[in-house]
Amino acid sequence: MRFWKWIDGLEGGLASVGAGLCLFAMMMITVISVIGRYWLNADLIPGAYNLIERVAFPLMVFWAVPLAHREGTFPRFDIIPQKLSPRANAAVSAFVLAVEIAIFVVIMWYVTRFALNAFTSGRQMQIGTNFWPLWPVVIMIPLAFFLMLLEMFRLFWEAIRQIRNPAAAATEQKEASYDNI
Q: Packing angle between helix 140-164 and helix 2-13, nearest 10 degrees?
């Protein structure tokens, strides 16, 4: 329980603080660029578009995705099982989660390889006329997928427990939901 509360706090912090600051930075960069371009006839932030496109937006997305997945706003394949009995629902959910986990493990593998390659090769991105290292942005992608996989494994474990004993799993789930209130 304590571990999941810590993970929830980490995801919440990444989403609210990290993604919120990225959104705020995107707005400020846009406003400053527009003011500079149309009122002062000057480029106040060289490479503003690149900064938004290659830094702020990807960070905002990948910091928000794990929390969106945990809260259920990330697309999931759980519409059909809701019409079934609790045991059949759990079995279908476990199967779907197993497929999702397999897909996300493969994606995680390739994304992690890409991030490590970007770090070891010193890959850079052009922002205006300068070059910035790519790895601080890219390293957040495996982190986001890792947090999503943790949640998927937790949901998979709950589905397996519900297949084994639907009544006990439902009781524990109700108690856990009361703890969150």
A: 140
Calpha distance 96→1 (Å, rounded): 25
Largest Cα separation within the chain, whole Å, is 69
Are the beta carbons of 101 and 151 closer than 8 angstroms? no
Per-residue model confidence (pLDDT) at position 113: 92
Q: Encode 7-54 in three state secondary structure.
A: HHHHHHHHHHHHHHHHHHHHHHHHHHHHHHHHCCCCCCCCCHHHHHHH
Integer Cα distance of 105 and 84 in angstroms: 28
Q: Which two tokens stand for residue 126?
A: 């052009």
Q: State the DSSP H helix or E strand holding residue 142, giving kind and residue range, or none if neither.
A: helix 140-164
Helices 57-71 and 140-164, packing angle to 10 deg: 10
In angstroms, rounded to a whole number, what is the distance separating the alpha carbons of residues 15 and 68?
A: 9
Q: pLDDT per residue over 130-159, tens digit each?
A: 788 888 888 888 888 888 898 888 888 888
Enumerate the β-bridge partners of residue 133: 124
> Using an 8 Å Cβ cutoff, are 119 and 141 in contact?
no
pTM over 0.90: no
